[in-house]
Target: Aminotransferase
Amino acid sequence: MNTTKSYIAKKVEEIKPSGIRKFFDLASGMEGVISLGVGEPDFVTSWSAREAAILSLEQGYTSYTANAGLLELRVEIAHYMKTRFAVQYAPKSEIIVTVGASQAIDIALRAILDPGDEVIVLEPSFVSYIPLVELAGGSAVAVQTLKENDFKVLPSQLEEAITSKTKAIMICSPNNPTGSTLSKEELKGIAAIAKEHDLLVLSDEIYAELCYDDEYTSLGAIEDMRDRTILISGFSKGFAMTGWRLGFVCAEESLIQAMLKIHQYSLMCAPTMAQFAGLDSLRNGSNDVEEMKKSYHRRRNYIVESLNEMGLTCHIPGGAFYAFPSIASTGMSSEEFAEKLLIEEKVAVVPGNVFGISGEGHIRCSYATSLEQLQEAMKRIKNFISNHS
Ligand code: PMP
Model:
């Protein structure tokens, strides 16, 4: 018999393990660690949404829903996207309820990529994009966004990266890990390039509810972009529902129907009780979202000011719940900084290099943790810096 490892598909073997995991594993064996590492809200899902899920179970809704999700929920998603973000998608044919935004990204890529097709990924980027492009049989072309441009891609960088094999550009605003947001004008710039080269744009809008300074603009709302956009979103961040595994994807009908083929065979449907909770979040959750947003906003201001004061220069992240300060002044690599900070001061952050080449020289600090914990973490980081200067 071959060794069991030899059965593993080459493309899976070649996927690198997530650099974030290593730090979680290290931190989980230690006591008294303050974690600024995790990318999830510190709020519990609203009681109203939890009750809606409980009620659905009490009423016996324990079977599959339609493959694309409860129609009632798709109608509510369509209404929410139209009233909140000015994008219009038909509930019956242009929306799929997915198992988190993660699955939406996966089926979108699998539906559009043939072997060799290229997808432009803007680094620093969410860690799943490149592995998911590769698992879908495509090639990821990484473009490095830079601190001096607030980690926003320049049109010239996109133009340079486009080849005859490019099929799509992946964007994420507000961004994980940098918190950068793309303005309407910047989105129009990307849209013009997508139109000129006849490309799709996968727009990960999972943090759309968490935008602090400007009104959010969805890529689907930019003129002529609706049919070129695969709009990915979900309930994890804005509605504090990470564990429910609920997201959705909106796109023009033929794209959605292609994604639905994959979804129906690989997953059937998103969990039924989670769909009931999501329905309640959309109907009754807007006040909770506002409250959470205000709280993140206060914490963002605090953390950015503190980091800048101690010499870890940090652009102001317009959204999400991450600060991405430079650690260049310490002379350490991002891994060295994160590892020493964890061991010496018991603060967990994520080294920027796990998000791509241009993430080196930075760390990602999630501020989705209480202000008291943040204050203590900032004290410890300040101490760490002075011990190493
Ligand atoms: N996109 C981005 C940019 C994210 O940060 C995350 C979660 N960390 C996801 C997608 C996945 O979210 P979900 O929980 O909905 O799968």
